[in-house]
Write a structure and sequence with these properties.
- Helix content is 66%, strand content 8%.
- It has 848 residues and is an alpha+beta fold.
- The chain folds into 5 domains: 124 residues; 249 residues, no CATH class; 101 residues, no CATH class; 75 residues; 82 residues, 2-Layer Sandwich (Alpha-Beta Plaits), CATH 3.30.70.100.
- The strands form 5 sheets. A 5-stranded antiparallel β-sheet has the order 6-5-4-3-7. A 3-stranded antiparallel β-sheet has the order 8-10-9, with helices on one face.
- The longest helix is centred in the first third of the chain and has 50 residues.
- It comes from Rhizobium grahamii CCGE 502.
C-alpha cells in the first residue's frame, strides 16, 4: 500500500470517528431538549395570509428597532457593523417577500370585483344579498392588503436608510482609524519598551501554560490533529503535483521558452502553490480547533501566525515567478540577475516586516497590551519599509543595453526612482508625524495589494495569450486534448478561446476578493455582494437574477436534449419497427422537435424570472401590426426561424432557387444572402425560400455526379471508345472509385455514336476543372488512337424550273433538306443538273 493511500485512510477513519462522537452526543442531548417542547404543544388556529403578513410586518418593525439600537451602541466596532449590515439586508428581503406574496391575492380580488361590477345606484333594482356580502368582504380584504403593503413599503424605505447609515458609519470609522494621530515622543517609546518586555514575559507564560496543559491532558488530540494536518498536506502536495506538476515546474531543457509558457507557469505556480499552502493552514487550524486543542486566548495568535506564514510564502512565490533570479530566460521583466535578486529580496523583506507587525499586533490584542505598544510596533514597521523603498531606489536593476543578464545593470528610469523615494519618504514622514495607522495601511497595500494585482494581471495576460488564434494547440494541455479527443484545428482553437476565458475568470475571481478584503471589506460584505449579483441585479425598474438566468439556460438545454433523444427513440424504435412511411416519420420528428423546443423555451423563460404576460403583450402588439401591413415582415421572420431551426440549407451550401444559384453566405431571420459565381450578392426573402422549391447540391455532403458527353463516328469501335474513356477517368485521383465510373452508350445519332462518361466527385466544386482536364485528355487520346469525332452533316438540293429556281421537286425527288450543317450544293444552271459537293463551313453557310 502506498504511503499516500495509507495516510488518506487514516484521515478518513479519524474524521468519521470525530463526526460519530459528535452525533452520539447530539442524540443523547436531543430527547432532553425535546420533552418540554412536546409537553407544551397546543393546537392553534391558522391565520389568514393577510394576518400572517401583518404579523410579519410587526415583527420586522421590532427587528428594525433592535437593529437601530445595535447600530447606535456598536458605532465604533466595524465587525459588529458588518454583522448588523447583513441582518439589515436579510430583513429587507423578508419584508419585500411579504409584499410580493400578497400581490397574487390582490390581483384576484381586483379581477373578482371587476366581474361583480359596481353596486346598484339609487333607483336601480337591488342585487342579490350574496353578491353584496361578497363585494363587501373583498373590499375589506383589499383595504387590509393595501394597508399591509403600504406598511411594508414604508418599512422597506426605513430599512434602506438604515443600511445606508451603516455603510456611512463604516466609511467614517475606516477614515477615522486611518487618520487617527498619536503623539510620538521619547516618553511614548519608553512606555512602549517597558510594555514590550512585560508582554514578552506574559506571552511566554501563556504559551508555556497552554503547551503544558495540552501535553498533559490533550496529548492524543494534539498529536492526532498534527498528524491529520500533515496527512492532509501530503495528500494535497502529492495530488497537486500529480495533477499540475507539468504546469508548476520550469523545464531546464527549454532554453528559450515562449512568452505564453513563461506567463502560464508564473501564474499557475504562484496561484496553485499558494492555494495549496492556504488549504494546509486552514485545515490545520480546523483540526486543532475541532479537537479542542486551541485555547480561546491562543487561537487568534495561531491564526495570525498561519496568516503570516501564508503571506510570506505568497510573496516568495510571486517574486520567484516574476523575477526568476537564477533563470533569466524565464524572467517576465527586463532585469539583470543582480537586479532581480535585489528586488525580490526587498519585496520579501517588506512582506516579512508586514507579517511580523500583523502577528505582534494580534499578540498585543489578545494579551491586552497597551495601545502605545501596538502603535510603536507599526511605527517601526513603517520606518523599515520606507527605508527599504528609499534604498531600492538607488539600485541598478535594469537589464544592460547589450542584453547580457550577468552584466552590471542600469539605473531605474528617473520617474520610477523618484516614485520609490517619494513613497519611502512619505511613509517615514507620515509615521513620524503620528499617522501610524495610515502609514501601516499604505505599507501593507504596497506589498500585498501590489503582488495580488500583478499576479491577477499575469493571469489575464495568460488568458489573452491562450485565446489567440492557433496558440492553444501549441501548449502541452492543448496537445493532450488533441490526442485524447481527436480534435481538429478549428475545435482546438475554439477550446483555446474557452480556456482563455476560464483563466481570466479564475484570475478575477481570486484577485478581486483578495484586494477587497485588504481594503477594509469583510467576508460578509463579499458574500452580500455575491448574493446580490447572483440573485438581484437592478437595471432601472427591472430586476435580473443571474442564478435564474443560468437555471433557465440549463433547463432549456436539458429540454432540448430530451427532445432530441425522444425524436431519435421514436424514429429508431417505434416508427422504424412499425414500418411507418418515411414522410410520416419525418413529419412526426419535426413536430415533436418544434413542440419540445417550444416547451423547453417556455420552461426556461419562466425559470429565468421573465413574466410571460409581457410576452403576451408583445404578441398582441405584433398581431395588431400584422393587420396594418406587417404580414410580409412577420412571414419572413417566421420563415427565417424555420430555416434556422430546420436547416434545409446552411451557410456554404450550393443552392438553386427560382431567383438565384450560388453559395449561401448568411442566413438571418428576415432574408438569406446568396452569392452567385459571378460574385453578385442576391438577398432572397425567407418566405420565398420556404414557399418555393429550392435545390441544394450540398445538403448532406458535397459529393455529386459529373458527366461528359462524347460523340464518335460510325466507323469507330464502341468498346474501344468505352475502354479509352474509363482508362482516362480512372487516372484522375479525385474521381471516386465507389461508386465506380462508367460509360453509357446513349444512342445512335444521325451522324455519330453518342456516349456519356459518368463519374462521382467528393467535392462538386472540383467538377469544372476535372471535366476540363478530361476533355483535353480525351481529345488528345482520340487523335492518337485514330478515333474520329464527326462534324455535323446535312444535304441541300436545289431544282431549277422553267421560270424560277425554288425548292419544288424535280424528277420525282423530295424537296431539299436544309440543316445547320456544312454541306452545300452547287447548281449548274446551263446544264440543268445538280452536283453534290461536300464542304466544311464553321458558321453553317453555303459554300460554292
Amino acid at each position: 500500500m502506498r504511503p499516500t493511500q495509507f495516510l488518506l485512510r487514516i484521515f478518513v477513519i479519524a474524521t468519521l470517528a470525530v463526526v460519530g462522537a459528535n452525533l452520539a452526543v447530539a442524540q443523547m442531548a436531543a430527547p432532553q431538549a425535546q420533552q418540554p417542547t412536546q409537553a407544551t404543544e397546543q393546537p392553534s388556529v391558522v391565520d389568514s395570509p393577510v394576518e400572517q403578513a401583518a404579523k410579519a410586518i410587526e415583527k420586522a418593525k421590532q427587528d428594525l428597532a433592535s437593529l437601530e439600537d445595535g447600530v447606535k451602541q456598536k458605532s465604533d466596532d466595524d465587525d459588529a457593523l458588518v454583522a448588523l449590515a447583513g441582518k439589515t439586508d436579510e430583513l429587507g428581503r423578508a419584508v419585500l417577500n411579504v409584499s410580493v406574496s400578497l400581490r397574487p391575492r390582490l390581483d384576484q380580488i381586483k379581477n373578482r370585483l371587476t366581474e361583480l361590477g359596481d353596486p346598484p345606484k339609487e333607483g336601480q333594482p337591488a342585487e342579490a344579498e350574496i353578491v353584496t356580502t361578497e363585494r363587501n368582504a373583498l373590499t375589506s380584504e383589499r383595504a387590509q392588503i393595501n394597508a399591509v403593503t403600504g406598511d411594508a413599503e414604508t418599512l422597506s424605505a426605513a430599512i434602506g436608510k438604515l443600511g445606508n447609515r451603516i455603510a456611512e458609519t463604516r466609511r467614517q470609522l475606516f477614515a477615522a482609524t486611518l487618520l487617527r494621530r498619536t503623539d510620538i515622543s521619547f516618553s511614548v517609546l519608553d512606555d512602549a519598551g517597558r510594555a514590550f518586555v512585560r508582554e514578552g514575559s506574559e506571552f511566554i507564560q501563556a504559551l508555556s501554560s497552554w503547551l503544558g496543559f495540552v501535553l498533559k491532558f490533550k496529548a492524543f488530540a494534539f498529536f492526532a490533529a498534527i498528524f491529520m494536518s500533515l496527512a492532509t498536506a501530503l495528500v494535497l502536495l502529492s495530488g497537486g503535483y500529480r495533477l499540475f506538476g507539468r504546469y508548476l515546474q520550469r523545464k531546464e531543457t527549454d532554453e528559450q521558452p515562449s512568452y505564453i509558457n513563461r506567463l502560464s507557469i508564473a501564474f499557475w505556480s504562484t496561484l496553485i502553490r499558494t492555494l495549496a499552502l492556504a488549504a494546509l493552514l486552514v485545515t490545520s487550524y480546523f483540526f486543532l480547533n475541532s479537537f479542542n486543542v486551541l485555547r480561546p486566548d491562543i487561537a487568534p495568535i495561531i491564526g495570525a501566525l498561519f496568516g503570516s506564514i501564508g503571506l510570506i510564502y505568497f510573496v516568495r512565490r510571486f517574486t520567484n515567478a516574476v523575477f526568476a533570479p537564477k533563470e533569466p530566460h524565464w524572467r517576465l521583466v527586463k532585469l539583470s540577475n543582480r537586479g532581480a535578486s535585489s528586488i525580490g529580496a526587498c519585496l520579501l523583506a517588506m512582506a516579512v516586516v508586514n507579517a511580523l507587525d500583523y502577528l505582534f499586533g494580534s499578540i498585543s490584542e489578545e494579551l491586552g497590551s497597551p495601545l502605545v505598544l501596538t502603535v510603536v510596533k507599526s511605527l517601526i514597521a513603517a520606518l523599515i519599509i520606507g527605508l527599504i523603498l528609499i534604498a531600492a531606489s538607488f539600485g541598478r536593476p535594469m537589464l544592460a543595453r547589450n542584453g547580457d543578464p550577468d552584466a552590471p545593470g542600469r539605473h531605474w528610469p528617473r520617474g520610477m526612482a523618484i516614485i520609490l523615494r517619494v513613497l519611502g519618504a512619505g511613509l517615514i514622514i507620515t509615521a513620524l508625524t503620528g499617522y501610524v495607522g495610515l502609514a501601516r495601511f499604505v505599507a501593507t497595500q504596497l506589498i500585498i495589494t501590489g503582488a495580488i494585482i500583478v499576479t491577477t494581471y499575469i493571469g489575464l495576460l495568460s488568458g489573452k495569450a491562450i485565446s489567440r488564434s492557433e496558440t492553444f494547440g501549441e501548449t502541452s494541455f492543448g496537445r493532450f486534448l488533441q490526442r485524447r479527443f481527436k480534435l481538429g484545428p478549428v475545435a482546438i482553437d475554439q477550446a483555446g478561446l474557452l480556456v482563455g476565458m476560464c483563466i481570466s475568470a479564475i484570475a478575477l475571481m481570486v484577485g478581486i476578493p483578495l484586494v477587497l478584503l485588504l481594503w477594509g471589506f469583510h467576508i460578509q460584505d463579499l458574500q452580500l455582494i455575491a448574493y446580490r449579483l447572483l440573485t438581484e441585479v437592478r437595471l432601472g425598474g427591472i430586476s435580473i437574477s443571474l442564478v435564474g438566468i443560468m437555471t433557465g439556460i440549463l433547463l432549456f438545454a436539458g429540454g432540448y436534449l430530451l427532445t432530441r433523444w425522444i425524436q431519435r427513440w421514436l424514429d429508431g424504435n417505434v416508427m422504424a419497427r412499425s414500418h411507418v412511411d418515411l414522410g410520416v416519420r419525418n413529419s412526426v420528428k419535426t413536430g415533436i422537435g418544434y413542440l419540445g423546443v417550444g416547451l423547453a423555451a417556455i420552461v426556461g423563460v419562466s425559470a429565468a424570472g421573465i413574466d410571460l404576460s409581457n410576452l403576451a403583450l408583445v404578441a398582441s402588439a405584433l398581431s395588431v401590426g400584422i393587420g396594418f401591413g406587417l404580414q410580409n415582415i412577420v412571414s419572413n421572420f417566421v420563415s427565417g426561424l424555420i430555416l434556422l431551426v430546420e436547416r434545409p440549407f446552411k451557410v456554404g451550401d450550393h443552392v438553386v432557387s427560382g431567383t438565384a444559384e450560388g453559395i449561401v453566405k448568411r442566413i438571418s431571420v428576415r432574408a438569406t444572402e446568396i452569392e452567385t459565381f459571378r460574385k453578385q450578392s442576391i438577398i432572397v426573402p425567407n418566405s420565398e425560400l420556404i414557399n418555393a422549391s429550392v435545390g441544394n447540391w450540398t445538403h448532406r455532403n458535397k459529393m455529386g455526379r459529373s458527366e461528359i458527353p462524347v460523340s464518335v463516328s460510325y466507323e469507330s469501335d464502341p468498346q474501344k471508345v468505352m475502354d479509352i474513356l474509363l482508362e482516362l477517368v480512372n487516372a484522375v485521383p479525385v474521381v471516386l472509385r465507389n461508386p465506380e465510373p462508367h460509360v453509357e452508350f446513349l444512342r445512335f445519332g444521325p451522324y455519330s455514336l453518342d456516349f456519356e462518361l459518368r463519374f462521382m466527385l467528393a467535392d462538386m466544386g472540383d467538377g469544372l476543372k476535372v471535366r476540363n482536364d478530361l476533355r483535353i485528355a480525351i481529345l488528345k487520346r482520340f487523335r492518337e488512337e485514330g478515333v474520329e469525332i464527326p462534324l455535323p452533316q446535312s444535304d441541300v438540293v436545289f431544282h431549277r424550273q422553267a421560270d424560277h429556281v425554288g425548292t419544288a421537286t424535280a424528277a420525282g425527288k423530295p424537296p431539299a433538306k436544309i440543316d445547320d450543317a456544312s454541306e452545300a450544293s452547287e447548281v449548274d444552271e446551263e446544264a440543268g443538273t445538280v452536283r453534290r459537293l461536300r464542304g466544311k463551313s464553321a458558321d453553317g453557310n453555303l459554300k460554292g
